[in-house]
Each structure stands twice: as C-alpha cells, then as structure tokens.
Amino acid sequence: MSRPPMIVRTLPSLRRALDNLRVRKATIALVPTMGALHDGHVSLVRQAQRRATRVIVSIFVNPAQFAPHEDFGAYPRTWKADAARLAAEKVDLIWNPDVKTMYPDGFATRILTAGPATAGLEDRFRPQFFGGVATVVGKLFAQCRPDIALFGEKDFQQLKVVTRMARDLDLGVKVIGAQTVRERDGLALSSRNVYLSPEQRQAAPALHRAMKEAAKRLRAGDDISDVMAGGAKLITDAESWNNLKLFRQDTLFQEPRHHERSRMGWPRAELHSSPRSRNSRRSGRGDTAITLGCMTSRHRPIPSRSRNGSIAMSLSRAAISPRMTQ
After folding, report:
1. Which among 147, 253, 266, 311 would be 20 to 30 A from 289, CA to CA?
2. Could you tell me if 83 and 210 lie in one domain?
3. How confident is the model at residue 57 (pLDDT cuts 50, 70, 90)?
4. Domain for residue 234, yes or no?
5. Phi/psi at 249 (5° precision)
6. Do both 198 and 108 map to the same domain?
7. Same-domain pairing of 97 and 222
C-alpha cells in the first residue's frame, strides 16, 4: 500500500518536510492550485512526476487575485475529494496554508507586474488579478523552493506572467507550461465550468472550433483579414462571443498587422489558452508566434466576476501537429 501524502499547513512544518524531501539531492516539482481539482490538474501532477523525483501540490484559494465583486466566497472548495485524488496520484506533499499563514497581520508587500500582464486580455477586465497571482506564486516559490513548477496553458497570459516574474526576480524556478485538457467537445476543463448555464455550456465549444478552423486556414496561407472575419463569424453565430484579436505569443503584444503576413509566414498553428480561457489546445512549439485572443462579452459564464474572458491561439513556423485536429 502506498504512503499517503504529507499534509502540511504551517511554515515550520513545511520547512522540516522540505528538508526531508531534499535528501539524496531529490528534485522537487510544484503544482500550484486553488483546489477543486479535475483531470487537468491530474495531468499536471503526472507531468511533474515525470520531471522530478518529488512532487508538491499546493491548494490555496488566493484572495489577493479576487476583486471585491468576484467569486472568492463562492469559489468551489472540495478539500476531501482533492486530498483523496492527490493520494491516489501518490504526490509527496500537499501544502494547504490558510489565509493568515500566507498573508499575516501587517502584510504589506505586493509584486507589481508589467510586460505580458498588461497585454489587454484578462488584465483589461481584472486589473488586480495578475498582481495577486504574481504575489502568491512568488510566495509559493519562496516557501516550497521547487526546481520546477507546472502551470496549464489554458491560462496562457498567467503562464507568461509567472514565467516572466520567475526570470526577472532570479527565483531559480523553471516554469513549464502544460497542454490544456479538454472535454470531448473541446471545452477546456476548469473548476469554474460549474458556473455555466446549460445554454452557455452548449455555446462554449464554439471558441475551440473557431480557433481550429482559423489555424487550418492560416496554415494554408489564407489572408489574415479573411481568417479573422471567418473566425469572428463562427463565434458570433454561437451567440456568445464577438471580438477576435491577434497577439504575439512571446510578448502578447497585439501583432502583427495584417499586411505583415508575408514577412512572418504561417506554416504552422499552435493552440494555447490565455487567462480564463475555455477553448484552446496546444499543438506544438515555436519561437516566433502570434496569439489570437477572443474576448467574450455577450454572456457572463462566471457570476460575480468580470464580464469578459479570453482565449488564445498561437501560430508559429513549423508543420501543424495532428493533435490540433483532435
């Protein structure tokens, strides 16, 4: 019978546990979560186990990334199910601090974010969000001292922000993005999918379909303006979304202009997701890429939070992966 994971809730206990995990020069992977675990989180855990000898999963619903009108109080909390699921996956340690441990009385420090955190995607509608994310992730990195940390590409802008922060602050943590896990109809798994009404749930996969179609056409060399117009029609016909934009994958700047297509080239499409995405899927890697962002504005899939979400599709310079069409 496998040993259950250590469950740690105080910093002194965490430090002692880390000293034990570090014996024999073990490598540590961290999977930060807010709980309400699903198969996407499990995929992160399994990838972490392939990359490191010890795996820590943190479960902490971070109040610093919620605005007062958002769903902090209502966010799903399923501790018993989460702990059982992580035990079944044989993780080594669950870090489950409370708010006072993370933000004790007198706490007065916050990480200010720029660069990809100001791309006009999630930040446009949740200006407090990435400062809260960067602050809590910075604390988790300092507390757990991992060698690597895994984040889902579903929240693509968040992945870029955390990667930039770890690099800029010399935290010594390699941030790794992991492929989005989806329902059979293309909807990205998310703890907040429980908020979707039946009508919203039925409409949501249109985002993924539109992105796959746009990727296919760009790979074929179609004009960007025509591709964008076609993608906009697909999502507008779903009566849920109505605004497509192009962004660079590496910087999340809104690039390139349509007339730059011939200079950049489009032989391959990758799908990624940016923050609060529900519809993209990775299909490969590339250094030069752009991102297609879709800002939702007709429905409110998450009550008591921003009226908008975003998805992203990145396009780079190699042959398209068969996975994209799955």
Report:
1. 147
2. no
3. very high
4. yes
5. -65, -40
6. no
7. no
The answer on 219 and 97 residing in a single domain is no
The alpha carbon of residue 6 and the mean position of all alpha carbons in its chain are separated, in whole angstroms, by: 26
More confident residue, 286 or 24: 24
If phi over 0 gives left and psi between -120 and 50 gives alpha, with beta otherwise, what is residue 185?
Answer: alpha
Tens digits of per-residue pLDDT, 199-257?
Answer: 889 888 888 888 888 888 888 988 888 888 888 888 877 765 656 677 778 788 765 54
Q: Do residues 40 and 117 share a domain? A: yes
How many structural domains is the chain composed of? 2
Catalytic residue among 41, 208, 272, 299: 41
Same domain? For 249 and 150 the reply is no
Residue 91 has pLDDT above 80, yes or no: yes
Would you say 65 and 132 are in contact if contact means Cβ atoms under 8 Å apart?
yes
For residues 16 and 117, membership in a common domain is answered with: yes
Q: Residue 222 CA to chain centroid, in angstroms? A: 29
The answer to whether the peptide bond before residue 256 is cis (omega within 30 degrees of 0) is: yes
Whether residue 30 contacts residue 144, with contact meaning beta carbons closer than 8 Å, is answered with: yes
What average pLDDT is seen over the chain?
Answer: 80
Catalytic site residue 208? Answer: no
Write the pLDDT tens digit of every residue in 273-305.
Answer: 333 333 333 333 333 333 444 444 333 333 333
| 128 lies in the same domain as 218 | no
